[in-house]
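WARN  no MSA supplied for this record, continuing single-sequence
INFO  ligand: NAP
INFO  echoing inputs
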Amino acid sequence: MGRLENKVALITGAGSGLGRAIALEFSRQGARVFAGDRDEVSVIETTDAAIQEGGTMVPLCCDVSDKEDVASLLSTIEKEAGKLDALVNNAGITQREDFRHVTDDQWQEILDVNLTAAMRLSRDALGLLRVAEGSSIINISSIMERVHVRQLSAYSTTKAALAGLSRAMAVEYSAFDVRVNYICPGYAETAMTQRILRNPAVRQGLLDRTPMKRFVSAQDVAKAALFLASDDASFITGEGLTVDGGMSVSL
Ligand code: NAP
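INFO  complex generated
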């Protein structure tokens, strides 16, 4: 018996990296997973992998920063499942730019994808979340919500705002029996970090600063999301779970 038996989950950005690992883990644990991503090919690959493992997954092509795509995604879930037990707002992008050179368009783009999309989905999915019992929202923030490196000011701003939004939503959504939590991963080796982690000196520097001496695995984050979505976390809301091997508490 899986830990998410009879539950329905929506994972955004499920075509690769952390989102794919979360979607597959939720499916292994018995959830019926709606896997959303703007890249149709990659999200179908995630779905094929889940089905090969005997899971139930539906691929949905959706750009989370597009209002109409989001509306159509939620309407599909309403028609096909009629409820939502877990919403994982994982889709995200990054940019590297000195703060003084960040353009208005860059700023708007990252806000739209990393923050506004999570706000819109969390707001508009409430009806479906309320139908399910003990449902929850899990927002994928980052340790960058509170520790900072050069050239990631816009990214850090979205992740800090997402943490704040999660706590604020937790207060309001408790009235509807919907929990809201967030996860702060450290550095994981995914497409998002590929370029920076290709540099051996940067890699070693990051590992040296991590007490547990390895990068975060996608499975580490998937297990944290599983815990927060499961009944084991039924009295946890407004909380941030850091998954970084001690990096953000180490000098
Ligand atoms: P990733 O491998 O690049 O995966 C992100 C996925 O989201 C990709 O499939 C991407 O599609 C999709 N996506 C991007 N914009 C989208 C949009 N507008 N609509 C729908 N899908 C969209 O990156 P990741 O490392 O797994 O990141 C997942 C989340 O974890 C992000 O929110 C990220 O900020 C967060 N995070 C990552 C790390 C890390 O070290 N990797 C650390 C902390 C937090 P495309 O391939 O088409 O772009």
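The chain has a mean pLDDT of 98.
INFO  checksum written, moving to next record
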